[in-house]
Amino acid sequence: MLKRKIEQKLIDWKNAKEHKPLIIKGCRQCGKTFSVLEFAKNNYKNVVYLNFFENPDYASVFSGSLEIDNIIMMLSALLGKGAVFEAGETVLILDEIQECPEARTALKFFQLDGRFDVIGTGSLLGVKGYGKEPRSVPVGYETVIDMYPLDFEEFLWANDIGEPIINMLRKCLEEAKPVQEAIHNKMRQLLLQYTVVGGMPDVVQTFVNTKQMNDVLSIQRDIIRSYEDDMVKYAEKADKSRIKECFQSIPKQLSKENKKFQYAVIKKGSTASKYMGSLQWIEDAGIISRCYNLSITELPLDGNAIEDVFKVYMKDCGLFISMLEDGTQYDILQGKLYGYKGAIFENLIADIFSKMGRKLYYYHKDSGLEIDFVMRYKGECTLVEVKATNGNTKSTRTILNHPEKYHVKSAIKLGDYNVGNENQILTLPLYMAFLLDKM
């Protein structure tokens, strides 16, 4: 069974005094239902489970009075012995809650009542054209947690890399000293595997059990097809084809030298006004992350982001690789990256950063200055360069040499080498990106 970080978040939520009903948001097939059910089974005497996607009839329970005693009575009649409500001992799980907006509204009344814990999960919450809006979103009466596919650290756990090794890597980072060669090489290998496998739970479990990359690719492409089916099934009629075209353009967008997202790449003559909503739909579904260009390298980053100039990355790097041509997996595992190497490793680092909850930013000026990522690290504005091999850091050095203009004193270069220092630039192996979590 895959160990997930959401497990600790669920325990912390339960242990918090007067906790509110919980909503777990995340893209389809990232493991929400499994994690919530495992947690419920291990922490509650009674578990009442409703899946509104599989059983649309359950929505009728919430169509009338939302008084909690009435809901309990209706569920007891509907589920029989499957609905035991005992104050302080029962959790109600509302799976795919976006299918029943009234159930989302009812969270306020569960919070005010206080006898039972409630956890809702949703894949397409807030996505335009999906279902009806709740009568009232229970603002202030619910806690929302974003869940992602497995991140690189969770992938390491799945591959028997435990806390002692991870702590040793963290110590090497803090002391800026090289990682022991055997471990360094093992981590490089695992990173390449994560690049092609990614973090969708079914994909990771298949990889761990079989190491069969053709099976991995087959599952990934099934997931991509299911995302495309969602776009056709749930989007508003006028948007259906545009959303799919937008999504399918992502590999092309990332292969360009100028990686800024360009609507014209989707289809010749396309404009922002035509496709802006389509891109937003894909982002709201949890499939992609945007990385915004900064007007200046200065904190706060969000306040200096240029709203209409951005790159787009797939939230899960394994799914991105599966969208490329056959044979790409093999090339990456062999270290033969050819023309896609920049796009592949940038998407990998975007995957790692976004799954730790970071918003993504970069810096590009027409003068030629370009920094792959800019982030807040240890309270400072920090440049991050991503290099498949050694690569030059001309832009980084230009910025560091003019602190009065750019307000930056630190930079990190991620690449295929061990830990070291190069004149103000901390050089780290790509696999250490997951340790850069100190905001």
UniProtKB/TrEMBL annotation:
Sorted UniProt keywords: ATP-binding, Nucleotide-binding
Q: Name one GO molecular function term.
A: ATP binding
Enumerate the InterPro entries for this protein. AAA_14, DUF4143, P-loop_NTPase, Restrct_endonuc-II-like
Query: Which branch of life, at top level?
Result: Bacteria
Q: Cite the DUF4143 domain residue spans from the record.
A: 228-388
AAA domain: which residues? Answer: 19-156
User: PANTHER family under this entry?
Assistant: ATPASE
Quote the protein name from its UniProt record: ATP-binding protein
- According to its UniProt entry, this protein's organism is Waltera intestinalis
